[in-house]
Design goal:
- With 750 residues, the chain is an alpha/beta fold.
- It contains 21 helices and 27 strands.
- Helix 13 crosses helix 14.
- The termini are far apart.
- The structure holds beta-D-glucopyranose.
- The site of beta-D-glucopyranose (BGC) has 8 residues, from loops.
Length: 750
């Protein structure tokens, strides 16, 4: 494999790029003010308008003429007459690098040479697990899988590569990371989150922001991150996307706000707003959230963009505005800077009227335009907005990028059950490979893979190997049969039985059909009946089963779990997860992923690991009601890691009071291992009913076979606090229990 700069970064231990807030300096401020003073109201509103690429392409919106091409007359209207400042999306599917460069340079040429002000256009895209709208772009495991690595350094590197490949297309704005904490397992976008824990989402989210926004000679040009979806989007009461959330202020601040707070501290340049409502108030019309909290309290100075059509939805979905005119007024006055309109120009016309009549203050327009132009300035777009030449990005889709994606998949795949150490498997084993995901990489890639829902294979130009292809090579005595789709059996019973009879065991590749947002809503949190039935019949035939799961969220598998000897949660590892799966099955790689969520056992008993004591009350009045299928942090390896010698002491570091914690870990097995060491703290008594435990620190450690290491943590006492009745973060003295793995110890802190 060619060793690249990125590969060198990857292997250099402790790699960290610090990029922090990136404020506008005095000269830039003057430059921006001068520019804005020369702009007409129409030009300003153009900057606040974001339009879908379909609108400037040949064909109809959502039904473009293939192969894709831009339409000059439509571009003239949008970019020149209306002066639109931002374009988004791909026209239905991914494009080649060459086509992206042509699209972006044509748009920029129009904007910079045919308009009076010559302001370049911000192109935005959802590159949420790699450059997923670039044909051939390197796909990484989805964020939930990335969280299972507990390795923010690796996640930061994936973000840097994503930025590299996205910028190679000429695109400088990424609608990522999703900082919504995944605390509603039914939600269709669970796989886009970094899991249910606040600290994990904070660390991963900030790593991604740094990865996207850093630039140096190896990664030229900047790309802006877009934190989304501010705020409380991931907690719909019904579990269905974009439905109402009911969240108290305490909960909002304790569980949903911190990843955004941290991302802002790390310099995130933009934010996208939650399409839904919280306690009945649509966030797009909520000034307390968009101004008081986001601007005044968190001091965020970047761009706030709506989500798709969300201003209009204040009328037809939320029913808080009587018409679109009122909706535009509400949203802009509540603090929105840019509207992802995205398929017409009514927003721009209405905002023009509203500003002329004084219903939207001119000062609100200037503020929004300042932020948008400041972002363009920070991205260096006024100096160079043309896609960089291919020579600047020689590593797009390189072997070294793919191997980094594979490393991430290796560290994310989570072994949840391994009865009688059935895994790893000898290469001589006769496996029958079956199940819907066995020969279809769409289950591995998930949504946001070359198309929005990830379900149109014709756009997947990568003829990559499937699980069946690779396993048949690795385990030459093996055989393959489809078995079933999501909905029904695909093979004649006798044919299936014949193959089954010849096998030592079955590798069942189960999954959920890829989906996200509204198309991903479900009424039942379970694996499909056809898959369950086939697994039951295989078990009835007495064959051991290794179950591989490729799912959008933790679907209930309670009935089939006892029938499977090994269970591996692969999340959506992407097409670059195929080889890692084979390596884990054969024991070339020791699995080290740990669950970033609680895996529920019953669909009506959905609790996160950091629930309150009262949530554990059982029918018999004991505190035993929390019985998930697997707990947050569960995950096995092939080597047993022994924990011992937990030590805690309190000390001072400058003005800060800190807890120093040390623990020994020993690899008692015969394979080198990577171990995510998770440190939980329980506040025993507090003025607000405390969570039974909270993750307060973690680290991923390599430990060779037979080796022993001491792992150290330093915890600022303030991190052990919580949001009190007055919505303030406080630390309350008292007894705290620190636990790591099977060890725990209490400390009284005054
Ligand atoms: C999604 C956003 C996404 C946007 C642009 C919306 O439907 O909710 O997450 O960034 O579309 O594609």
């Amino acid at each position: 494999m060619k060793k690249s700069f990125f590969f060198a970064l990857f292997i250099s231990v402790g790699f960290q790029l610090v990029i922090g807030q990136n404020p506008i300096n005095k000269t830039q401020h003057t430059q921006l003010r001068r520019l804005i003073s020369k702009m007409t109201l129409k030009e300003k509103i153009g900057q606040m308008t974001q339009i879908n690429i379909d609108v400037i392409s040949k064909g109809e919106v959502f039904n473009l003429i293939e192969p894709h091409s831009l339409d000059s007359a439509k571009m003239h209207k949008i970019l020149v007459e209306y002066g639109v400042g931002s374009i988004l999306n791909a026209g239905g599917h991914a494009y080649s690098l060459e086509h992206w460069k042509e699209i972006v340079s044509t748009i920029q040429r129009f904007a910079t040479t045919k308009t009076r002000m010559g302001i370049p256009v911000l192109y935005g895209i959802d590159a949420i697990h790699g450059a997923n709208y670039l044909l051939n772009g390197t796909l990484f495991p989805h964020p939930l899988a990335q969280a299972a690595t507990f390795n923010p350094g690796m996640v930061q590197l994936a973000a840097r590569i994503t930025a590299y490949e996205t910028k190679a297309c000429g695109i400088t704005w990424n609608f990522s990371p999703v900082l919504d904490v995944g605390r509603q397992p039914l939600w269709s976008r669970m796989f886009e989150t970094y899991g249910e824990d606040v600290l994990l989402a904070r660390k991963m989210g900030s790593a991604v922001v740094r990865g996207y926004q850093s630039s140096d000679s190896a990664n030229p040009g900047k790309m802006a991150a877009c934190m989304k979806h501010f705020l409380g989007y991931s907690f719909p009461f019904t579990g269905k996307d974009r439905t109402s959330a009911y969240i108290s202020d305490i909960q909002l601040r304790e569980y949903f706000l911190p990843p955004f707070t941290d991302a802002i501290k790390n310099g995130a340049m933009s934010v996208m707003i939650n399409s839904g409502d919280i306690n009945g108030i649509p966030v797009h019309a909520n000034k307390s959230i968009l101004v008081d909290l986001l601007r005044k309290e968190l001091k965020f100075d970047g761009v706030a963009v709506t989500d798709w059509e969300d201003i209009y939805k204040l009328v037809n979905v939320h029913h808080v505005a009587k018409d679109e005119r009122e909706a535009v007024k509400m949203a802009i006055n509540a603090g929105i800077d840019m509207s992802m309109v995205p398929n017409d120009l009514r927003f721009s016309d209405l905002l023009y009227e509203l500003t002329l009549s004084g219903e939207v203050p001119q000062q609100r327009i200037d503020e929004a335009v300042y932020r948008i132009l400041a972002m363009k300035l920070k991205l260096g777009m006024f100096e160079n907005c043309m896609p960089f030449s291919k020579a600047d990005f020689p590593e797009v889709a390189s072997d070294s990028f793919i191997s980094i994606a594979e490393n991430i998949a290796e560290e994310s795949i989570t072994l949840l059950k391994n009865a009688k150490n059935i895994l790893p498997l000898a290469k001589t084993k006769k496996l029958l490979i079956t199940g819907p995901a066995s020969n279809n990489n769409m289950y591995l890639n998930g949504a946001w893979s070359r198309t929005w829902q990830g379900t149109h294979p014709i756009w997947d130009k990568n003829s990559r190997k499937t699980i069946a292809d690779v396993i048949l090579q690795e385990f030459p005595e093996s055989d393959w049969i489809q078995g079933c789709t999501i909905d029904s059996l695909t093979n004649n019973k006798d044919v299936f039985s014949e193959k089954l009879n010849h096998a030592d065991m079955v590798l069942f590749c189960a999954g959920e059909w890829p989906s996200t947002e509204k198309p991903g809503d479900i009424n039942e949190l379970k694996l499909s009946t056809a898959q369950e039935n086939l697994i039951k019949s295989i078990a009835a035939a007495g064959k051991p089963i290794v179950l591989l799961l490729f799912v959008n969220r933790p679907v209930i598998i309670r009935e089939i779990e006892p029938l499977c000897d090994a269970i591996i949660l692969a999340y959506h590892p992407s097409e670059n997860g195929v080889r890692p799966i084979a390596k884990i099955l054969s024991g070339q790689v020791n699995p080290s992923g740990k669950l970033p969520i609680t895996y529920p056992k019953f669909a009506n008993s959905l609790l996160t690991y950091d629930h309150r004591y009262a949530d554990q009350l059982a029918n018999d009045f004991s505190l035993n009601a929390f019985q998930p299928q697997w707990e947050f942090g569960a995950g096995l390896g092939y080597s047993k890691i022994k924990y011992s010698n937990l030590k805690i002491s309190e000390s001072k570091s400058g003005k800060k009071r800190v807890l120093s914690i040390a623990v020994d870990i020993e690899n008692t097995g015969s394979m080198d291992a990577k171990e995510s060491v998770l440190l939980f703290v329980s506040d025993i008594t507090a003025s607000i009913a405390p969570a039974v435990k909270r993750l307060r620190a973690f680290d991923k450690i390599s430990v060779s076979a037979g080796a022993k290491k001491t792992v150290h943590f330093q915890l600022d006492l303030n991190e052990l606090g919580f949001v009190n009745r007055n919505s303030k973060w406080i630390f309350e003295p008292g007894v705290f229990k620190v636990s790591i793995s099977n060890l725990s110890s209490e400390i009284n802190i005054n």
